[in-house]
Amino acid sequence: AQTVTQSQPEMSVQEAETVTLSCTYDTSESNYYLFWYKQPPSRQMILVIRQEAYKQQNATENRFSVNFQKAAKSFSLKISDSQLGDTAMYFCAFISYGGATNKLIFGTGTLLAVQP
Amino acid sequence: NAGVTQTPKFRVLKTGQSMTLLCAQDMNHEYMYWYRQDPGMGLRLIHYSVGEGTTAKGEVPDGYNVSRLKKQNFLLGLESAAPSQTSVYFCASTPRWSTLFFGPGTRLTVL
Predict the structure, then answer these.
(1) Cα Rg for chain B, rounded, in angstroms?
(2) Is B98 near chain A, with CB under 8 Å?
(3) Of chain B's two ends, which shows fewer C-beta atoms within 10 Å, N or C?
(4) What integer pLDDT is reported at residue A12 of this predicted model?
(5) Chain B closest CA to A18's CA: distance in Å?
(6) Is the pLDDT confidence value at A101 over 70?
(7) C-alpha distances out from residue B21 to B7, B9, B49, B60, Å
(8) pLDDT per residue over B61-77, tens digit each?
(9) Is A106 close to B58, i.e. CB distance below 8 A?
(10) CB-based contact (8 Å) between B32 and chain A?
């Protein structure tokens, strides 16, 4: 079975500092995508960043970057220069392709609070 | 494009009542999904569809039924609502094996 684990239920960071959110996953598939989604108080699910498993280079999107360790099945999110608007629930998610699953599996989330 | 829309946004039911949640997408996506979100449990997959006329069970399908008669619509039905079905429900769609686009969610309370 495929699983996604986020071991940090809550985190806090000061504005302008850097924070890293952890995520590990378990799968026997070789072709998959990994995602970080952000859910602010508005409840809307917003894509932060996406990583294709076949790519060795870590994905980056402005202040957001990932550390993808395929062998260790680890996919952490680094937020640089944290802003108050980054306060949200962050979900790590996994989807395999080419097989019979086609299901996006989520972790339980990390609630990030950015303090002024 | 409206993207993914969900109807209704809020609903309160009494135990035993039935209702249908509607998800619509205007992006011509093949795959559609229904998730429920509960505190501390992330998003859990209820049912999904890989094309018009097809549906499949996810992690937590009991008490729910779905239909995908048209490619753009994915309906989630509760035949006899129970308090355990109090949750926030999200619909999502994707062209195929790619980024999921989510609707705004429906908050359902079952008394």
Answers:
(1) 13
(2) yes
(3) N
(4) 97
(5) 24
(6) no
(7) 6, 9, 15, 16
(8) 999 999 999 999 999 99
(9) no
(10) no
C-alpha to C-alpha distance for B99 and A47, rounded to whole angstroms:
8
What's at B47, amino acid-wise? H
Predicted confidence (pLDDT) per residue in A74-97, tens digit: 999 999 999 999 999 999 998 887
> Is the model's pLDDT at A102 over the cut of 80?
no
Separation of alpha carbons B11 and B71, rounded Å: 25
Nearest CA in chain A to B57: A103
| B34 Cβ under 8 Å from any chain A Cβ | no
Nearest Cα of chain B lies from the Cα of A108 at a distance, in angstroms, of 4
Q: What span, in angstroms and rounded, lies between the C-alpha atoms of A47 and B95?
A: 15
Based on DSSP, count helices (H) and strands (E) in chain B, helices before strands.
0, 11
Task: Give me the total of CB pairs closer than 8 Å, taking one residue from chain A and one from chain B.
Answer: 47
Count CB-CB contacts under 10 A for residue A10. 10
Cβ contact A58:A65 at 8 Å: yes
pLDDT in tens, A17-53: 999 999 999 988 888 899 999 999 999 999 999 999 9
**φ/ψ (deg, to 5) at B97:** 50, 45
Closest to B85 in 3D by CA, of B55, B44, B25: B44
